[in-house]
Amino acid sequence: MDSDLERLDAIARTALVHYGLDPSDELTLLNVSENATFLVRDPRRVDPTILRLHRMNYHSREAIESELAWVEALSEADVVRTPTVITAVDGRRVVDGVHPDGESRHAVMFEFLPGIEPPEDRLVDDFHTLGAIAARMHLHARSWTRPAGFTRFTWDFESALGPQGRWGGSWRDGMGCGPQEQQVLGRAAELIGRRLAAYGSDSSRFGLVHADMRLANLLLDGDDVSVIDFDDSGFSWYMYDLGSALSFIEDHPQVPEMIACRGQRDTERWPVCPPTMRPNLRHS
User: Fold this and answer.
1) I want to staple 26 with a disulfide (CB 3.0 to 4.6 A). Which of 18, 22, 41, 104 is the partner?
2) Is there a contact between 195 and 283 (Cβ–Cβ < 8 Å)?
3) Is the domain of 52 the same as that of 98?
4) Which stretch of DSSP H or E encloses residue 257?
């Protein structure tokens, strides 16, 4: 029986054919999380490409096409640099890789963008860069006319903390969550629900967001900054991007500095910190 990584490799190689590539071309696994990401080297090309192999039974083809539409629109509007989507020989942006036993996964190919993840010793400055980029993306999303059929997940209270949460049911069924934990966390969930309801979800506060806006999804190349990994993009409160950016570092001592709005502008067109980036949840 193939190992999981061998299966992913086999499926990815069948996807290469759609791009006129040889299944025997050099294919290097870069990362496996929800999706599998591969570096592809074609001996006929100078630059490598990136192949993203999607998890099963998550995003529909239409949802992936919608993600790619926003990725391309952000680049075309000069909001931020995003990876160019490479189309298949037949013009499709989403293809399928298929294992010999019939398992099929959606796949997308992107250009390879140069750059490195921001170093930790510049955390505050890079977080302000991240905030400025997020603000530009939010402003773009509010004015962008989405194409017909556009569909993405909604990240709201029910999808995160409701009884049928998107990540596999209720948090109450989680490992180590006994009666005492359910009581304490249940009160916290109820408070979050009340505060979000009071905060509201009108178009000035709720819209299309990246939803995984961590520094790890920025690439620094000299003065150029690129944003990658829009796989979780969907509809939520604009401040969701701040929450996801702080994932895993919520207790960092520099968090107050990291989220403080400087009030500067990089251009007159794109304010660094519009009202959508100033969360206020102080409701009982």
Assistant:
1) 41
2) yes
3) yes
4) helix 255-259
Strands 224-227 and 218-221: antiparallel
- Give per-residue pLDDT as tens, 142-151: 999 999 999 9
Which pair of structure tokens corresponds to residue 18?
């759609």
Pairing of strands 218-221, 206-209: unpaired
Return the number of other C-beta atoms located less than 10 Å from residue 263's C-beta. Answer: 8
> How many C-beta atoms lie closer than 10 Å to residue 48's C-beta?
16
pLDDT number for residue 261: 65
Enter the pTM of the model: 0.87
Q: What's the distance, CA 137 to chain centroid?
A: 13
Q: What share of the chain is helix, strand, coil (3-state, %, to 5)?
A: 35, 20, 45
At residue 62, what is the residue type? E
Indicate whether 89 and 135 sit together in one domain.
Answer: no
Owning domain of residue 258:
120-156+201-277
Q: How many whole angstroms separate alpha carbon 112 and alpha carbon 87?
A: 14
- pLDDT for 174 equals 86
Which pLDDT tens digit goes with each residue over 118-162?
A: 887 777 888 888 889 999 999 999 999 999 999 999 999 999 898
